[in-house]
User: Which sequence fits this backbone?
């Protein structure tokens, strides 16, 4: 795997995850109480022996840059690295990144200098655990120019994805973007060709791209240079290359979830609390998910009831009830609070004790969840200040709303409290 270079696509403005991407790049969005989205593909690379990685970024990248620099510092005994490549304007190219393929194209001058034989292109808003060495091995064994990692899916979900068709050798011969009706039926494939057993192949007769590719070095360079007007891998570069290049499919038959929308992100985080076995586990010692070591104190629970929940480090919970929720690092919850079906991302720092102590006449609301507050079915972003006696319950069952001036949005019925927002005492949402 020393001859493989990982390239993590930083994504665009992250509109599907807005407002969580209002002040940060999509890969920097907090996940599962202590991680960030970027930790998933980077950890998969490390566990697979891919130790050289570039991360392409463009929007709100300050916190992402900080996280990467503080987390992934390899020792002097290896030539591994995780480096950020930010969008830049030059005399030859005065534009910002126009898409996933254009982002890689603008840094071809640097990628050419790599001694890698293959480029591993990774998307970042997915939750999964994958051994990329098996993926690359399949790519080499089949003599492919490009290999796409695919997941088998059933007919009910198939029309929501870009689908592919393969021949008996596993070569990709056709593409269809979110097909329906007869066009959908025409995209059925025999997934036993890729290694699925007969019963599973009958249940899942379609294959969809995971947005993960392996390119031969010279093939990627040729494709990007020959088609300067094509800016996206999934929609333009890959489909256009099927005729002239050997495109192979690699089956990934394990948990994989696109968490690039508010609804999917919310559900995937809360699914981590599921018992006895969640769909994705962060407790795998053989393939750990790495993140920044913060050296926080243990979490403190004072006369509180916590059920089916994940609690990050450094939290303080006092005389409260927490059910089916995920609490991020440094979360503080006051007495009499009820937290249900909620993702709280925590805080970046601790406030001094005098600022945290309740004072009915103090105009500034402290960081954390104030006393006697109820929160259900919500996402509370970092450093949010929720006052006493607040109810965040979407009382009117609103599906979509923009109340940025009040510190919150509603997406798919989920109330999202903005980062650094202050919700005054007695507010009802």
Assistant:
């Amino acid at each position: 795997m020393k001859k493989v270079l990982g390239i993590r696509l930083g994504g665009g403005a992250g509109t599907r995850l807005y407002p969580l991407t209002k002040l940060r790049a999509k890969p920097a969005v907090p996940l599962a109480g202590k991680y960030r989205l970027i930790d998933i593909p980077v950890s998969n690379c490390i566990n697979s022996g891919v130790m050289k990685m570039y991360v392409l970024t463009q929007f709100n990248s300050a916190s992402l840059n900080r996280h990467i620099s503080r987390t992934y510092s390899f020792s002097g005994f290896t030539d591994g690295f995780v480096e950020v490549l930010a969008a830049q304007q030059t005399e030859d190219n005065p534009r910002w990144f126009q898409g996933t393929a254009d982002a890689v194209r603008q840094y071809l001058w640097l990628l050419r200098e790599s001694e890698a034989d293959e480029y591993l292109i990774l998307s970042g808003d997915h939750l999964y655990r994958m051994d990329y060495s098996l993926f690359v091995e399949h790519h080499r064994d089949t003599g492919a120019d490009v290999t796409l990692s695919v997941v088998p899916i059933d007919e009910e979900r198939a029309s929501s994805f870009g689908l592919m068709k393969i021949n008996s050798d596993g070569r990709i011969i056709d593409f269809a973007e979110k097909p329906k009706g007869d066009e959908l039926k025409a995209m059925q494939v025999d997934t036993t060709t890729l290694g699925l057993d007969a019963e599973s192949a009958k249940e899942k007769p379609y294959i969809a791209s995971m947005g993960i590719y392996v390119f031969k070095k010279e093939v990627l360079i040729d494709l990007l240079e020959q088609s300067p007007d094509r800016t996206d891998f999934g929609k333009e570069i890959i489909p256009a290359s099927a005729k002239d290049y050997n495109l192979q499919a690699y089956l990934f038959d394990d948990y994989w979830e696109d968490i690039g929308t508010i609804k999917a992100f919310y559900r995937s985080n809360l699914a981590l609390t599921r018992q006895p076995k969640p769909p994705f586990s962060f407790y795998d010692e053989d393939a750990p998910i790495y993140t920044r070591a913060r050296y926080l104190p243990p979490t403190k629970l004072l006369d509180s009831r916590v059920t089916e929940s994940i609690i990050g480090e450094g939290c303080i919970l006092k005389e409260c009830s927490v059910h089916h929720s995920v609490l991020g690092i440094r979360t503080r919850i006051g007495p009499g609070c009820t937290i249900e079906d909620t993702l709280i991302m925590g805080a970046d720092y601790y406030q001094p004790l005098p600022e945290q102590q309740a004072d009915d006449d103090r105009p500034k609301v402290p960081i954390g969840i104030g006393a006697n507050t109820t929160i259900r079915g919500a996402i509370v972003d970092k450093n949010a200040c929720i006052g006493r006696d607040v109810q965040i319950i979407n009382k009117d069952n609103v599906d979509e709303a923009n109340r940025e001036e009040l510190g919150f949005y509603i997406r798919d019925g989920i109330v999202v409290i903005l980062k650094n927002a202050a919700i005054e005492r007695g507010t009802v949402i």
